[in-house]
Amino acid sequence: MKPSGLQVTQLLKAWSEGEPAALDKIMSVVYQELHRMARRYMANERPGHTLQATALVHEAYVRLVDQTQTSFENRAQFFALCAQVMRRILVDLARTRHAQKRGGDVAPLELEESLAVGKERSRDLVALDDALKVLAAQDERKSRVVEMRFFGGLSVEETAEALKISPETVMRDWKFAKSWLRRELDKETPHGA
Amino acid sequence: MEHDRWRKVERLYHEARVRPAVERARFLAEACASDESLRKEVESLLAKGETTGSFLGTPAMDVAAQSLAGDQARAEAPAGSSVMLGRTVSHYHIIEKLGGGGMGVVYKAQDTRLGRAVALKFILDPGLDFRSRPQGKPVIDPAALERFQREARAASSLNHPNICTLYDVGEQDGQPFIAMELLEGETLREMLAQGEPPNPSADGFQPSGETAPRPYDVRASVSRHMPLRLDTLLELSIQIADALDAAHQKGIVHRDIKPANIFIVSRGGMLQPKILDFGLAKLTQADARGEGPTSDGKSSLTHTGVAMGTVDYMSPEQARGEEIDARTDLFSFGAVLYEMATGQAAFPGATTALIHDAILNRAPAPASSLNPALPAELGRIIDKTLEKDRDLRYQHASEIRTDLKRLKRDTDSARVVAPGLGPAPAALKGGATEPGAAVPAAASVPSAVGSVREAPLRNRWRAVAALGAFILIGALGWSAWQFRHPRNRVEPTASLPTPDDATIEQVTSSRGLDVYPSLSPDASSIAYSSDQSGRFEIYVKSLAVGGREVQLTSDGEENLEPAWSPDGKSIAYYSRKHGGIWLVPALGGTAIQLTDFGSHPAWSADTSQIAFQSDPLRDFGQSAYDAMPPSTIWTVPAAGGNPVQITHPDNPPCGHGAPAWSPDGNRLAFSCTYESEIWSVPAKGGDPQRLAQTNTNWAFDPVFLPSGRALYFSAGGARGWGLFRLSLSARGDPQGQPERIKTTGDMLYKHLNFSADGNFFAYSALSATSNIWSIRYSTAGNQAVEPPELLTHDTHLRKYFPRFSPDGKKLSYGVGQTGSRGSVWVMDADGKDSRLVLSQGGVESSWFPDSRRLALVISQDQNLLLTSVNVESGRTERLRYIDGGLGVTLGGVGVTLSPDGTEIAYHVGQGGVFNTWTAPVENGSARQLTFDKEMMAYPCWSHDGKYLALEVKRGSSTQIGVIPSGGGAVTELTSDPGQSWPNDWSPDGDKVLFAGQRDGLWNLYWVSRLDKSEKQITRYTKTNIYVRYPSWSPRGDQIAYEYTETTGNIYLLHMK
């Protein structure tokens, strides 16, 4: 399936006008596109490129969205959406791998290593995703900030634009959420696997 | 947690966070008063805050996208290598993985100091199984590492065309690496392994010596391989012997000669073996390989007991673990020769032990018993190299070389007399066939389509006879041959033909430029221009099997644009260095000059006239126009005489280039530059007629179908490049609109050429690699002080117009396909953190004084709108419409902002005449600054805003001009023939920085406004590159610019 810029653009518009069904369709298109792009980057079809989340999201935007038809607000929305989709891709993958491991498969991939979220201690994304859900129940906006910054690779300014808050607020949310998440994840260790 | 409490925690967290640590406890104690749990909550968060550091610091996708697709790469790769891509090791920027295996991992990398591509090989402990130890790092003894570096340096002293050159040795995280010559081709092992398709992921790559721990899993007595043709075998083995001789004379022994360590590159139709890893085998082979210590008794770099690689080519003394010398290489070479000659291993065996036994105790089966066509002399040579007692072997590689050369001489002379002139000589015994039978074999190759490999490599001995037949007939001249050639048997089809992609055949495989194909009238040969010698020369290549390339000119005069005469006798070409149109006999001979100006010769069908354009050839870039105004079309009698001007520069008002004769000789078609149109004019002069108009930005190289019923041309625009076709009536009038018959994407098909029967179509496919580079500049010494450094790492999209922000911290630049609107990007001045600012924003932008916003021009509702964009947020703001009072089009406008951000300067072009205007950024009327009859355009502001530098066109050259920004007289600073394209000023306001083309080479220069002194900044010497858009940093210590390298090769296809 090759999504046309127009299709995604119209879906984005429909979504922003309050049509929830459009979101699933966009997610599916963006999911496929990001997945394909990530694979392509890894497969070295374009030598010379350094893989960067930001670059992926920007490229997806250029590829999927007809820029003559969209406003900048839509661009921010799109970036936020990419962050959501990336979270889904990565967490799904992590959960699958987790299941494989418990099932006794010999996983050649050192999952925890590759998906480590911090340098000092190896964490997998499943725990982070769970903690983010708890955070979202408490403070939706902070979980979105983490989602955009960490999963989407968005800059502070882009995050601010998408959430319609000031960059200063983004920084405050980001600092607080990181401390909070760090504490939550550390808490789990004694009970965890 | 309740909402209020959550807010409270958050508020206290931030309030405490900004206080010094020592004050926090007191602050919290006071703020939380009696609420102990609140205090603990905040304190626990603050405590975590101290340690978050890199926590969540790297976006998950950066790491995890690799795991989406990286399983396989990781499984194959050594520790950490999956994250090597994009990294810089020492001064090498790693671009892609080329291969990996027993001896290490090889990456393609860019040497950022010297700007060349290299192969970077990480030498690894062959005993470690990285699949099971992803974190494993080879443990290397420092003494061994030092020895490795010493030996590698010794090996790097080897400078021989058949030895892969070592550039550099280094170490990264305890892993030693080698930077070496990047090769493209295949290994001898793959060449021998006919039927085994090479690993697709490793196609056109550099091997790591081995791509698998064992080259052949089973050594059955039945060979899976084909012997090489005798001439190929001799061509390769003589060069290998020469390389061994050179190394041995320096006291360097390879120790691991085997097909996987011999790389075969094809250069100009010749096969060139390159021996890999000279002197390195010793460093990485484990002691246990020979059940004993290495020759010097010290520990080797690796210290596992696992033997690496293959034992198949090992000498008896190696197998016994004895001290070895140069003669070991000769034995291994013998085993390789044996396999080349027979297609079978000299010492077969299913296990290492059996192979050892064979090497030590058994004589190989006589080579001639496996390949009866083998000359007896070759059998003798092989036997002598495979003597188990090294004192009975050849003692020096030079002796083998001499014997092989003598054999080559004998078989070469035998081959010429072979076909049909008596009994087959010994060299062709068993493989000889009569010429009639050889013909289909020879002629069948053109249909072996889509293959970029050299088909002849895979042929059997019998092809030697076929080749012999062809050479003989070739010597009689193509005309005697053409009646039998299948290319002439195909009848022209009635309907308009289109290129049949299924039949594409790559004719040349250059890493530089092989361009301007011109088919011989019978399409049996092709002429073209190649820069393989460093300068462009004309070459002719037979399209038949084994067709050799013959160099037709060798005067270093940059000979381009060959055109084969319809009678097949001569080739006309353009000499860029000398100027004008020249003629040379197609079979070789002395060139004579026909005109002293002009380029792009084209023959009339009756061979009496040559048409050409008055403009010289400009450039090889994708966006290079055929010709610029006021170029016109001329004709000259092919036998010599005065040139006659056919078109006039103002009719049509554009640059006339790339003439093509209609088949009836009545009209000349030509491209019309800046208008993207194709026109025609009566060949004897008269009113021109527009044939085709496109919506693209460029239209090039019209060519008539030989039936005269269609015109083909190449054009491009925002949607990429493509081939277009325009139907013509019997009278030659256009019928309908041109249609795009093929989309070629990033690739530009240029230099279109039909065979005389219209069935074959040749073209050059050009692709460009464009990046922003930066060079350090010493203002004190007034010169570049360090080699250029690569700032962007991309592939085929062009990078335009880098611009330093006024604070010097950022660089803006444009990215786009030629002809597209492009997008605006910003990166740090050191190339880091590049990000998209605005797509569809055009490629030229300039900074506002605040270093936060860029000014650029976007197209809106047919108008041009000056816009500002915030580089952080991407927010745009409309500033004003641009109206030059003339029909300004987007393609013809470049807008730059004055340093104080209040004014813009731009040029307006119409009918090939360009002049510069200025206008206030806020409302106010535009003002025309120059009133030239040719061109005063591309204005750029001095840093103090007082002057504008301009590109002033005079004839076919452009010069640097300067005008006060408030208006006044234009002072021309340069008067050099060539191109001078200004783009920036030095911070002190004196020097105009420009991209200049001198003698066909592009480099960066500056010229002083005050004293007109000029200085060359860069020293590029390649003809297939150009530099553009230099920008000087505000401190004057850095210059950023676009560097684009164009590569091109020649392709041939059938029309269907």
Summarize the structure.
By secondary structure, chain A is an all-alpha fold. Chain A contains nine helices and no strands.
Question: Any descriptors?
Answer:
heterodimer, A: 193 residues, mainly alpha, 9 helices, globular, B: 1056 residues, alpha+beta, Neuraminidase, 7-stranded antiparallel sheet, 56 strands
Please, could you describe this protein's structure?
The complex is a heterodimer of chains A (193) and B (1056). With 193 residues, chain A is mainly alpha-helical. Chain A has one domain. In chain A, 71% of the residues lie in helices and 0% in strands. Chain A contains 9 helices and no strands. The longest helix of chain A has 31 residues. By secondary structure, chain B is α+β, with helices and mostly antiparallel strands. Among the domains of chain B are: 49 residues; 56 residues, no CATH class; 264 residues, Neuraminidase; 272 residues, 6 Propeller (Neuraminidase). Chain B is 18% helix and 33% strand. Chain B is built from 18 helices and 56 strands. In chain B, strands 10, 31, 32, 33, 34, 55 and 56 form a 7-stranded antiparallel β-sheet that branches. The termini of chain B are far apart.
